[in-house]
Amino acid sequence: MHRDLKPSKILLTNNYKTVKIGGLNLIKKFKGNFLFSNLGTNRYKAPEIHENSPYTKSADIWSLACTLLHLITKEKPYF
Asked: 43, 78 in Cβ contact below 8 A?
């Protein structure tokens, strides 16, 4: 899991054909079913992380959706 996906972590190559993800310092492999740490950028964190509840890789999907929303609408999530 990446645990801190946000627009500044999305990198494009010079020809815009390749997308890379940066900021790999918070990546963690699952050893069980859930993670419990409260990491990441507040605007892009899934609700379960804000509530200090256990979470799965679906939290990264939430962060990716918030990132895409920000890139498409040019408005930050969670006003």
From this structure: yes
Q: How far is CA 55 from the centre of its chain?
A: 13
pLDDT tens-digit series, residues 21-78: 888 877 777 677 788 888 888 889 999 988 989 988 899 899 999 998 998 999 888 7
Catalytic residue among 1, 2, 3, 4: 4
d(CA 78, CA 34): 25
Q: What are phi and psi of 47, to 5 degrees?
A: -55, -35
Q: Does the annotation count 4 as an active-site position?
A: yes
Q: Report residue 68 as tokens.
A: 């895409």
CB atoms within 10 A of CB 3: 23
**Residue environment code for 15-32, b if the CB has 16+ CB neighbours within 10 A, otherwise e:** eeeeeeeebeeeeeeeee
Name beta bridge partners: 55: 35
